Amino acid sequence: MESPVLFSVKNHVATITLNRPERRNAINQALLTGLYDRIEQVAADDTIRAAIITGNGKSFCSGIDLEVILTENLFDPRGDGTDMPDIFEKCRKPIIGAINGHAITGGFEIALNCDFLIASENASFADTHAKVQIHPGWGMTQLLQQAVGRRRARQMSFTCKFIPAKTACEWGLVNEVTTPETLLDRAFEIAADISAINPDMVATMKRLIDYRDTATLNDAFSHEREGFREFVKKNLGK
Question: pTM of the prediction?
Answer without folding.
Answer: 0.96
